[in-house]
Amino acid sequence: MSANDGESPAEKPIGIPAEGRIPKSAGPIEWDIPWTEYAMQQAQIAQKTMESTVENAIEVTRSRVDRILTTSSAHYNQTVDSLQDLKSEYITYEDIVFGKIKEGLLYASSRPLITTGAVLGVGFLSLKRTRQFFSYSTRRLFFSEETLLSRADAKVKELRQSIDLLKVESESLEKKALQAEEDLVRGRTKLRQAGKQIQSVINSAYKIERQASGLKDVLRELPSREASRFRTQVTNLAKEAKKERNAMSKEVTKISNYGISV
């Protein structure tokens, strides 16, 4: 038996398996074990990093919450102190006011004449006209000269605009009146001319009536049979002329009633 056969299994080098038990792998065995350990180390490092990040975030959040609570408590205490100060000042002023009222009542009871005069003065001031007078005086005191001037300027401008509108309306009415007057003059002229024409027609009717009367005299010299036929026609013409003359005379009378001489 060789020296190797005489060695016990305990004396064999650690990590060297028997020849029949060597695992078969695609790559070298010595690269598998360092890569696994490296991955485990990196995982542990990442876990520790995440834990430290979470702890830091929790700590920051906790410190901010504590700071907010501390600040809110300080503001609340400050507000309570301010309210207490206001309450104490209100009580102080209230005591002063009631003290003044009490002094005034005592003073009024000790001097009735002055109190009566003051009451009458207040009653006089409460009248409407008196209040209006004092209100107007007070407003004049508070309003500056520039304000009064601006208001006066605005009033003057308003009046000027009203006057301008009035002038425009007056000019328009004047034009209408002149147009109506011209129409009236033209109408009177036309009526006068129409009256003269009517008068000439009336004169013509008179002439026709006279001529008809003359024809009647001539017809008396003609034989009775022939004269009767012409006499009827002349009479009818004379009647028509008289009828037209009377109608024209009425028109002349109407024109004369308008104050137009014909």
Automatic annotation (TrEMBL):
InterPro entries: RGS1-HXK1_interactor. Residues 149-183 form a coiled coil. It comes from the Eukaryota. Keywords: Coiled coil. Residues 1-25 are annotated as: Disordered. This is Peroxin-14.
